[in-house]
Amino acid sequence: MIPEKNCARCSLHEFRTKIVMPDGNMNSNVVLVGEAPGENEDLTGRPFVGRSGKLLEKIMNSEGIQRSDVLITNTVKCRPPGNRDPTKEEMDACRPFLEYELSTRKVIVGLGKSACRILIGYEGKMADIVNQEMKITINGNELIFLPTYHPAACIYNNDSKAELKRTMNILKNKYLD
Ligand code: URA
User: Which pTM does this prediction carry?
Assistant: First the structure.
């Protein structure tokens, strides 16, 4: 299930330039789920092309992963105004599209709080679950869920950056070779 060009399932449609659809390897077993498009993503229609996207790619590359090895998507496909966090209602409205993207994969990486909130109902600190693999079920399919820090949280925090690098190391060694 993919959104229609004029999708208006939630109020985010009022602010968008482009719907931001998944990018990367459409057939990958591994999907990275971010939070929401920012300004650059809204303008280009591609996820993770701004500052945090550049850091994400740098950390992936440092562990031998290319953007073209994985699928990259977000909890919502339209930019929230002022880059605020997407609300639960907005994520729920977009959820059928996300589930369609995820349900046939093997490993889902939750990049930060919003992805963990919508996919495993987690509202606590990322530090308490980072890089702890768990099982989740989406549309009757059992998948591995790997929570980690959002790249934006890693820009000025070397400990978070090291954990995100470790996430990429796990992907490379366990799930991508
Ligand atoms: N760009 C995205 O596509 N998603 C984010 O979560 C942040 C930046």
Answer: 0.98
